[in-house]
Structures are given as structure tokens and as C-alpha cells.
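Hi everyone, sorry if this is the wrong subforum. Our group has a chain we'd like a structural model of before ordering constructs, and none of us has done structure prediction before. Sequence below.
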Amino acid sequence: MEGMGLGTCFVGTGIGCRGFVDSRRSACRRSPVVSLAKGFGKSRSSADEIPQAQSAGQVGVWQKEYKAFLKRNGKDICAMCYDGYRRLGRGAVFANYSEAMDKVESDIDLAQSVPSMYVPMDKLRESASRRPSQGGDMKHITDRVARYDPEKQFVVVFECNGVMGADIVT
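Answer:
Right subforum, don't worry. Here is the predicted structure as C-alpha cells:
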């Protein structure tokens, strides 16, 4: 499983990823179940905040944690994406590693507890239209979702250490 080979883009962390996964934490914790995005992004109160610039150190930590996340969970994420594609159409898995780091103490639990869920393209576009100030960030994500090959690839939007990146995984 190869990630970061097709041009990972880094986007602002203010696009409301927490709204995607917080309310689904218990449903997504230990199984690759596809979750529907009811209330997609609505729980975030600071929807229009401007993302902070990311340092090279933050991006380096993101890359290290993202590769480790894919190594540990790649098969489950792949299954979640393919099932989501079959049931809901094109989309991406949003994974919030920062939330897991805040809540979990042991590495064993952390590997199993990264809140993640499949978000279909129509929900991504809906979110972008509700938050025009973040449209550029969402466009990076929707561009990747529009061009991946669902028979051979999947899209992961991974947040860690204040950095959010979107990647097509082969």
C-alpha cells in the first residue's frame, strides 16, 4: 500500500474535520463500518476560522504519523473506502489522529482508536458550499476524490499535529 505518491496536498485544519468524526467516535472506533455523514460538519462552531500556517516540523510529524497509520490500518481503511464507494459513491475517509492522541494513552489503543469515517463526494461539496471561506481547501480534497480510481486507489484525509493532508493511496 503506497501513500503520498500522487501529490499529497496539505490543507488548513479549519475545514471542520472534527464535525465529520466526533459524533461517530463510538461507531467508528474498532471496525471499518461505513458511517453516513448525518449532520456533516455541523458540530464545529468556528466554521469560518482561518487555518494557521504549517511549519516544516509539523508536516514532518504528519508524514511520519500518516505512514504509520496506513501501515497499521491500511487494509481496514481500504475496505471502508471500497464499501463506501459501492454504497455511497466516490468519497474519502477522514481520519483525525490528533483527536485520538488527545484521548488515548497507550500505543496499542491508539492504533485501534483513530476516529475515522467515509464521507461521500456529495457531502464534501455540500460542506464546501456552506463554507465559502474554506472552499479552496475543500477543492483540494474534492479534486482528489474526483480523480482517483476506486478499483485501485482510495483517498484519505488525515489530520495530525495541526496539519491536514489529502492523499490518494494506491
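For your construct planning: DSSP finds seven helices and five strands in the chain. Residues 9-36+54-169 form one domain.
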